[in-house]
Amino acid sequence: MMALLPQQIAPVDARQHALTQSYLAGHTEALMAYFLGLRAQVDTVLSPKLPAAAGKDYPYGRCEEITRELHALLALRLRQPVAPIEHALHNFMNQGGIVRTVWGVLREQYFQNALQIGGLYIDVSNDTVEVSKPQVEILPIEASGLLAVRDLVHFRQTAERYWGASIYANHLLPTLAPLLPMVSASPGRLQPGLQSACDYMIALMCRDGFTQAEAWLREGPTPPTDVARTVLARTPDDLQPWTDRHRDEAIIACQRARAARCHANAQWRQARVLDYLRSLRGRMTVEALSMNDGCATQ
Fold it and tell me: How many CA atoms lie within 13 A of 171 on its CB side?
């Protein structure tokens, strides 16, 4: 069995099912009240700090920020549990119960962040796409409809559906193409940019040694001039193509990275992430940087 990728949904095996039943079953109302209380604290912190996303006020589009902040608050609270539900969660974890953030495609409609607690799916940012929905949703994992992104095709289909995005091959910044093989353009929602700089997708590209990244770079369309101009604006010269054969450079970058086993080299990966961040400086607005639905580099 392959190791879990960052934020991948963990299988609910017999042990996790038993722990969930022993410690959390029958406490749905207490869990709901508890996570609504944590969400209220998170909103107090984040709402004044985060600008409108895609022209819509908080919490729209802020599932990644809300989930990350709430997970950190939960970890802090469980170090010294006070409330009965905190003691239940603390004991659940001490016995090996899973508590982790997860990210994926929800009901084949959009990207979403949530918490997995054993066999439970706890969405603490349930109102960030449709703001009229309840803030928190708690379901059995198998009933949640959250799926791991299978491959680049699955990501592109979701981005096209959710963001109204056009997806192109990253022939613009070839040294970043093995990890970030796509360029998205979503008028009115996201500025054109590389996809996808989240830990899960980067790890997915590394898992097969950049094979599917290379295939997309070979077959995918080159970004149009206006999209390329936006992506390359103020990008450092050392990250831009060095010949006029941009597609070939991106493909060769994958082949060389595979041959050098860069997919197993954490330092190489971190250096490319830092290069990606350098490519963003001075170009994208705060709104564009943050409207990424969980695909923010950690």
Answer: 22
Give the C-alpha separation, 183 to 201, whole Å.
14
Model confidence pTM above 0.85 = yes
Confidence grade of residue 298 (pLDDT, cut at 50, 70, 90)? very low
Q: List pLDDT tens digits, range 48-84.
A: 999 988 788 999 989 999 999 999 999 999 999 999 9
Final residue of a structural domain among 147, 180, 201: 147
Please state the separation of Cα 293 from the chain's center in Å: 6
The reply to whether 3 falls in a domain is: no
Task: Looking at the structure, tell me whether residues 286 and 156 fall in a common domain.
Answer: yes
Distance between CA atoms of 250 and 180, rounded to whole angstroms? 10
Q: Where are the beta strands (DSSP E) in the chain?
A: 99-106, 110-117, 120-123, 137-140, 146-147, 166-169, 182-186, 190-195
d(CA 251, CA 187): 28
Q: Count of domains in the chain?
A: 2
Domain residue limits at 87: 14-147
3-state secondary structure of 91: helix
Query: How far is residue 45 CA from its own chain's centroid?
Result: 21
Choose the final residue of a domain: 122, 147, 172.
Answer: 147
- The reply to whether 111 falls in a domain is yes
